[in-house]
TrEMBL record:
Provenance organism: Trifolium subterraneum (Subterranean clover)
GO molecular function, one term: quercetin 7-O-glucosyltransferase activity
Origin: domain of life: Eukaryota
The protein's name: Uncharacterized protein
Family recorded in the similarity comment: Belongs to the UDP-glycosyltransferase family.
Length: 214
């Protein structure tokens, strides 16, 4: 991670300069990165290129991390490791329900620092795109609307990869029924006019508007 953080910005800067700044026939309208390369946002900002982050985990985790790294809510500490966590749009969370990154016993120091860098410097991001769909996590998505909105554009995997029959076969009929219902909802979200389809179109329209302004 350290080597990528050291040399990645140099490589990306050179790529932009060589392929776009010196080429009047091409324009870089947007850069999409992921949470584990936050330095991409800094490079994009230097060139005044709009930047989006593709969040590939649940929106629930996005809300938890954002509130934790920006100190918006109380979380377990070394002094109070058994603290329950109350967050808008979510049920009461026990310490065992939380991701390791927000616990005082966090064993992933380096990765946690990368996430902290992203969430504490989000003003350089114009969009957060999520590999989820509104109907699946609407309460937590709505809870972030006034803080730092997240656009659901998923699911970004084809239904064939979900393999619901193989995963929940046998006697798990209730689980299987719920999974099938979610699969149908996911298909509707990405279909023409669905929630994710509308968000993708809105995202594209905003990029085009940015290009026109420049």
């Amino acid at each position: 991670m350290d080597l990528i953080a050291e040399f990645g910005p140099i490589s990306l800067t050179n790529l932009i300069k060589n392929n776009f700044l010196n080429n009047t026939n091409k324009k870089l309208a947007c850069i999409i990165n992921n949470p584990f390369v936050p330095w991409v946002t800094n490079v994009a900002s230097e060139f005044k290129i709009p930047c989006a982050c593709l969040w590939i985990q649940p929106c629930t985790l996005y809300s938890i991390y954002y509130r934790f790294y920006n100190k918006l809510n109380q979380f377990p500490t070394l002094e109070n490791p058994e603290t329950d966590v109350e967050l808008p749009g979510l049920p009461l969370l026990k310490p065992q329900d939380l991701p390791s990154f927000v616990l005082p016993s966090n064993p992933f120091g380096a990765l946690s620092n990368v996430l902290a860098e992203m969430f504490q410097d989000m003003k350089k991001l114009k969009w957060i795109l999520a590999n989820s769909f509104y109907e699946l996590e609407k309460d937590v998505i709505d809870s972030m609307a006034e803080i730092f909105p997240i656009k659901t554009v998923g699911p970004l995997v084809p239904p064939s990869l979900l393999a619901i029959g193989e995963i929940v076969g046998g006697g798990f009929e209730v689980l299987k029924k719920n999974a099938v219902e979610l699969k149908v909802a996911a298909r509707e979200a990405v279909a023409d006019g669905g929630s994710s389809d509308r968000n993708i179109q809105e995202f594209v329209d905003e990029i085009l508007a940015t290009v026109d302004d420049n």
